[in-house]
Amino acid sequence: MECARSISCVALDGRHLTLDALVAVARFGAKVELTEEAVEAMARSRALAEKIAGEKRVAYGITTGFGDFATVAVPEEMSSQLSNNLILSHCVATGEPYSDEQVRGMMLLRANALCLGFSGVRPVLVEKLVELLNRHVTPVVPQKGSLGASGDLAPLSHMGLVLLGRGEAVFEGETLPGAEALRRAGIEPLETLVSKEGLGITNGTCAMTSVGALHLYDAIRAARLADVIGTLSLTALAGQLDAFQDRMHQVRGQLGQILVAKNIRLLTENCEILDRARGLRVQDAYALRCMPQVHGAVRDALEYIRSKVEIELNAVTDNPLMFPEDEAVISGGNFHGEPMALPFDFLAIAVSELASISERRIERMVNAALSNGLTRFLTTEGGVNSGYMIVQYSAASMASENKVLSHPASVDSIPSSANQEDFVSMGTTAARKAGQVLENTLSVLAYELLTACQAVDIRRREGSCGSGLSPVHQAIYEHVREKVDFLETDRELWPDIRQVEKMVRTNELLDIVSERIPDFE
What CATH code would you report for 212-516? Predict the structure, then answer.
């Protein structure tokens, strides 16, 4: 997971793009180059597109209009205008723009999809996309407006506008007209698109896949953090370790469950508090005892989603497709987002579960009836002080909001294009929504981390189980305490929350763990 930060260059050939490589380019600015094989493949398919146009063969989007206009013939001399008009007429997205990294991911995916040479575009089109990436010119792409079926038409049209020196783009932190952004970056715009290139840009799942893939990458990190933070809560609650024995999980055989149980054992090794708590009760509540089963199921879900995403990273998703070996032009539906819509809905559901069980651990720590000896709301002077009472309220609010957001987008469909496009995926909505769930979940995990450190201090003061944490948890605890003091009496808590939220949204906590437990996964 962490190798994305160390990748400095990504070579595109349409076949070997990985999730880590996508993140390396989109988030960390890795350089992009095209392989010679990719350039040759694109040149062959472009030659076929020109031959088809010259022969006036009926081919969707080359010699015909789009959508319900597929029955309208377009003369060869109008083919460039046809492609340009597709971009101009389809750039109707609205709402807040996608983040720079999400748009960079879109450009990378579009370039990679075209590299395989089944799309009939000129190599120069892809070279321009790569130039935008390498010179950090990022089109402004509004978030709302894709059905996720005939490709992400509206968002990708906004991306394509900048290739023509139109639209808007961000360069060096400033939002500029597309032409000005290109001028400042030293990039010449394309004079025009030619036949098939409008479809080559817009017809594909690159918006939903970029957005969802980046959220997936962060969700995998969140799942690892949930193990780290959840076991710190387990310690603060003087939980029972027997439930995490390897043999318990091997007999069920679920791989994610086995992995999380192993992580819990590694994270809690040499913990005085947990060792001395052995036998205090027969078993703990589910939020503690069933971490391997719940966190592990999330891990398995994320692994499944990753397998589908990494196929799509190297997928050809426009229409029609051209096969130079026999000069076939095949109209189909590779642009349809259903293969990503279902996994991204699953992503929201899986990540939501991390927040739900985390909130339950927070409740156990602040509720004296459930906390195995901790003070009410983790305050030492209750009554005049509320302590961490409302921390749980806020965590509960976000966990509950996630349940609304986890309703699947993919079960909906609205016909479009005069009912030609009569079943759509809503995959882009699924990807965007998964990001909202992820943000809530990271906040809930931050609240749990804050609460667990306070609870550890209370447990230490109570003294019945000693004071020693595992070495890795001691390092995490000290890292938090460098920024957030113990809450002796009520104070403004929002600065504390801001500090721990920053910790869970960067790699700093997982770096601490990896340094001390190389086998942590």
Answer: 1.20.200.10
